[in-house]
Amino acid sequence: MIDDVIQELKKLIKNLKSENKPIVRKVIKNLGVALNEDSWKEFELRFTEVHQDFYNSLESKYPDLTPNERKLCAFLKLNMTSKEISSLTGQSIRSIDVARTRLRKKFGLTNSEVNLVDFLSTI
């Protein structure tokens, strides 16, 4: 439903006066954020049903991970590509790749032959 409203607003913005466009763009962005938050909550619920101990193990071994890093770990645990994660989160592929590099560093995998996805599958 929110997605439908966003699409309608995107169509309407073309016909608006230029001084009103920034206001509508802000509304579109805020709706998108709300949609992503709801989608993430649903994803997290389903993910924890299947991988019950993943977050607990991750938290106990790596307590310094941020919420976004834990979210990225969940996506990677499902063997998702940077492109797939990018489309779900609204971040650029480059941002996802940088975040993956930072995760590898936090996990101590920078000079290792171990793949990040393989590493997360053992947690």
Automatic annotation (TrEMBL):
InterPro entries per UniProt: Sig_transdc_resp-reg_C-effctor, WH-like_DNA-bd_sf
Gene3D superfamilies membership: Winged helix-like DNA-binding domain superfamily/Winged helix DNA-binding domain
Recorded GO MF terms: DNA binding
A biological process term (GO) from this entry: regulation of DNA-templated transcription
Protein name: HTH luxR-type domain-containing protein
